[in-house]
Specification:
about 45% helix, about 10% strand, about 190 residues, elongated, three-stranded antiparallel sheet
Length: about 190
């Protein structure tokens, strides 16, 4: 703690600020707190205050994927991927951009993209959760569609004994299984 942190003026200012409470309500806040926030008053309940939470976007690329691209290509990624990550291994410890990196080169945060796009870098938690739920629903629907296609192919293989057609259908089925993430052999 520095000497200025103990200055009576700043101590009083901090306590007044904290006593006022947040004037921003979380999307899931109660009606009273949302109404207060709309007119610029502080929220009444601590649980209704909007919190800043740093989340990676649900579709954030993994480190191994990013390593295959140049720094210029990574800098062109959407703003939502340019979030800060804390490097506690480096000396000195620092905040780095999660995507602005390549072999032996990292960029401090905020990077040029984060500076250019500002708040677009941060995805609100409820938005990130909604996107993630949509992705899970789409993945489940695709898995179901692939399972139905595989079943239809099996039926076609059972009806059509022609070895040439069966081989083509087998290749299609294996392609669908590969897309679904399973390469189990089909018992003929």
């Amino acid at each position: 703690m520095s000497v200025s942190d103990l200055d009576p003026f700043w101590v009083k200012a901090r306590s007044e600020f904290l006593a006022k409470g947040s004037t921003h309500a979380d999307p899931s806040a109660c009606g009273t707190c949302r109404g207060n926030a709309e007119v610029g008053k502080p929220v009444e309940h601590e649980g209704c205050a909007q919190r800043a939470t740093l989340l990676q976007a649900p579709d954030h690329p993994h480190y191994e994927i990013l390593a295959g691209f140049s720094l210029e290509e990574n800098a062109k990624l959407p703003a939502r991927f340019h979030v800060p990550v804390f490097d506690d291994c480096g000396v000195p410890n620092s905040w780095l951009c999660a995507v602005c990196q390549e072999e032996g080169v990292v960029t401090g945060w905020p990077c040029a993209t984060a500076t250019k796009y500002g708040t677009q870098v941060f995805t609100p938690q409820h938005t990130a959760e909604t996107v993630q739920q949509k992705q899970q629903t789409q993945a489940a629907a695709m898995t179901d569609a692939i399972a139905k296609a595989v079943a239809a192919l099996r039926d076609m293989q059972a009806v059509e004994p022609d070895h040439v057609k069966a081989a083509a259908l087998y290749e299609i089925e294996m392609g669908l299984r590969h897309a679904a993430g399973t390469q189990n052999e089909v018992a003929a």
